[in-house]
Amino acid sequence: MAVVIPLNGCLYNPEIIEDMGKVLCPPYDMIGSDLHQELRNLSDYNAVHLEGGEQPDPETMEIDYRKASDLFQQWLKENILAIDKSPCFYLMQHGFEYRGERLSQLGLFANVGLEDYERKIVFPHEFTRDPAVQDRVALLEHSRAQFSPIMTNYRDSEGNLRDLYDHITTTTPVFEVNDGIDDDIRLWRISEPAIQNRIIEFFEDVPLYLADGHHRYEAALRYQRLRQGSSDYTKGEGCDFVMMALVEFDDPGLLLLPYHRNVSGLSQSQLREVRELIDELFEIQIVDLNGTTVDELLDRVAFLGSDRHALAMIGPGPNEAYLLMLRPGVDWQDWGDLAVSEAWILEQKVLQPIVGDDLNTYVHYGHDPEDCVSYVVSGEEQLAFLLKPFPMNSFEKIVGGGQRLPSKSTFFYPKLPTGLVINQLSDL
Q1: Which H/E stretch holds residue 293?
Q2: CA distances from 220 to 144, 217, 273 (A)
Q3: In whole angstroms, what is the distance from residue 135 CA to residue 133 CA?
Q4: 83, 10 in Cβ contact below 8 A?
Q5: 143 CB-near residues (< 8 Å, 6+ apart)
Q6: Partners of 411 in the beta sheet?
Q7: Which helix (H) or strand (E) holds 94?
Q8: What is the distance, to the nearest Å, from the Cα of residue 365 to the centroid of all Cα atoms in its chain?
């Protein structure tokens, strides 16, 4: 049974922060060193000062964690941030543009009881890296706050919450944010006990699927165990919960995009082996890369892949491009559920037989297809494989069955903003 309850959210004070667009930032794992500095320069109050970036400096990270904790407390004292006196749910409407289309996503910010995966209440879909988990544990230990929500999906087939959300979004929001480009965010408090109880009861029998934030979820579990070993721990305190933004699977603004693959470092004989395995498994169509945009190539992959496996390959020459369709005689279903994914077939049936367990030495992942192609055209990488998104219906079935997907199988979009709602676990 999922425990989903309101939280005493910590929000930026709109009377002091006039432009909320300058203080929000992406999740930490989307913030490279250049963007990290840009966000720090954007505002002294940008949430990146608390959240940090993807690759902390090992020599300074202990100091950085303490600085983040001290800064958080300073902003609370100066009323830059204010904690709501009563527990609330928070409904976010995130409007954005994708490939010329205007879309909108709804996410419910809530406190969710931490559960070990074995209980089959919260389902992960990817494996984590220990250093990244420990980085988030250290930030929790110092700050005792969750600065960013974990994106989590749920199924509401009967639309039990949709009418409720539709009504809420007709009221005046707490604040509106516009980044000046194409994103806009609105946030509402949900404080009425009757509505809160309706939400709590709905989630009691609903499984939750982690979309973005596996490292932060596992960090919260580790931090919980650390607190449970302390003499001053009390069951039900803040460490027993994690802040999530709950997004319905059928939300029209929830996009599941692919991660693409670049390959480099292969010998000429290994490149020939790759081509031989591809010839064996796939029908191949030559593409005129000079006369085809990357978006057009992706559209053709999506069209061909509507009822079969399809992907595009760029390289190894800078002007070589191909469409690959799995041969009709290949019984991919015999390979198991994960073979629904082109990424799984590419890695398990083409690349791993050649490079073995050193896959991550040769394969690099990116969600920007233009970049992936340009790396091959410029000669920085040998190959690029452009993939279509992992099928959402298969995602729910496979992950709900307890399996995890190949590394970098999903890129959920848009990313949740950090700093919109902060969850203080306890007073320092």
Answers
A1: none
A2: 10, 5, 44
A3: 5
A4: yes
A5: 50, 65, 68, 69, 72
A6: 257
A7: strand 89-98
A8: 14
CB 21 within 8 Å of CB 255: no
Collect all residues with Cβ–Cβ distance below 8 Å to 214 and sequence separation of at least 6. 124, 125, 126, 127, 128
Total Cβ atoms within 10 A of residue 5: 15
Locate 320 and state its tokens: 């070589």
The DSSP secondary-structure symbol of 276 reads H
Q: Are 199 and 108 contacting, i.e. CB atoms less than 8 angstroms apart?
A: yes
Name 363's bridge partners. 263
Looking at the DSSP bridge assignments, the partners of residue 122 are: 208
Name the residue among 349, 365, 369, 361 with its Cα closest to residue 407.
365
Encoded tokens for 127: 């494996």
In the numeric block, which tokens belong to residue 354? 């050649």
DSSP track, 186-198:
EEEEE--HHHHHH
The whole-angstrom distance between residue 282's C-alpha and the CA centroid of its chain comes to 31
Is pTM beyond 0.90? Reply is yes
What whole-number distance in Å separates Cα of residue 415 and Cα of residue 27? 7
Listed in sequence order, the DSSP H helices in 318-358 are 342-345, 352-355
DSSP string, 28-48: GGG--HHHHHHHHHH-TT-TH
Buried b (16+ CB within 10 A) or exposed e, 328-344: eebebeeeeebbbbbbb
CA separation for the pair 256, 250 (Å, rounded): 11
Give me the tens of pLDDT residue by residue for the chain, a chain 428 residues long. Answer: 799 999 999 999 999 998 999 999 999 999 988 999 999 999 999 999 999 887 666 667 788 899 999 999 999 999 999 999 999 999 999 999 998 899 999 999 999 999 999 999 999 999 999 999 999 999 999 999 999 999 999 999 999 999 999 999 999 999 898 865 668 999 999 999 999 999 999 999 999 999 999 999 999 999 999 999 998 898 989 999 999 999 999 999 999 999 999 999 999 999 999 999 999 999 999 999 888 999 999 999 999 999 999 999 999 988 899 999 999 999 999 999 999 999 999 999 999 999 998 898 999 999 999 999 999 999 999 999 999 999 888 999 999 999 999 888 999 999 999 999 999 997 54
For residue 105, the cross-strand partners are 94
36, with CB counted inside 10 A (0-12, 13-18, 19+), is buried
Domains of the chain: 4-255+413-424 (no CATH), 259-388 (3.30.1760)
